[in-house]
Write the structure tokens for this entry.
Amino acid sequence: EGTPSFEGHAFENTAAWLRSCPEGAYTTARTVDKRTLVFEYDAHLKRLVETLSKMEETDVDPETTVYAPEKLEPAVRACFAAAVNAAPLGDGDEGKVTVLCAHGKHAIDAGWCDDGGLAVRAVCERLPPRPAQPVRAVAFGAPRKNAAAKAVSWVRDREGLEKRKPADANEVVLVDDEGRLLEGLSSNFYALYDDGTLHTAPEGMVLGGTVRKVVLEVCEREGIEVVLEPPSVNDADRFVAAFVSSTSRLLLPLAKFDIDDKHLQFGDGDGGERARQLEKWVLDEVSRCSSSI
């Protein structure tokens, strides 16, 4: 199937760039330690391969197609480096790098390639500072149609929800008809219950983020029982802490969480002591979970 084509660029607004792109698989990563490392690089590559597989219209073997890991990885690596090098970042800045892979008709129609092979593109912008406390989230909106795939279509589908998000809210948490709190528009969601268990939706029901992977590892190490079920709106009175996690936020405690007419507050505007401890444990793992590319 040939060698994937690739390009890397600087871009100031990744969301706007994604909305202009053809349908494809994408992932967003962060650099670490003055752009010498990438957080959970292998997990990002795996996400691209799995999403491309899910988007393929015919039954294929992902180990032999153009997006087999050994074929895709060199293009992703080169694309990633080109994007970071093109971005006008200061000495102390980290990069937020989004890599998108388009294939077949989508790539041809966008002019990214002529033969329908795999086209890889990446953009890099400065990684923004983590949000300062107090952080607020609100719950509304239906779940995604294909939560297991990180596809460009979701960036367009969520625009209406983003416009409804209050100006002082950091995230919107999606709720299904059964009152299950699934995931944020661009994050995973967790609730710490009064019995000490951490509840979060399982992979497949939501997209398992790279930071979520580290959160679960830290919980296992620290003896925090994880219940892989979505937190329920009906259990809101039992929440002693709540979090969202993503590439730019890492693990971020919520100080305020609004669910319909319930207005939950955690800690003294900072999420609470137990939330801050779990946040610190996860932040301490970032360098260890990063690698050079």
Notes: The two ends are 25 Å apart (CA to CA). Residues 58-64 have pLDDT under 50 and may be disordered. Residues 69-86 form the longest helix (18 residues). Helices lie at 14-19, 41-55, 69-86, 105-109, 152-157, 159-164, 210-222, 273-284.
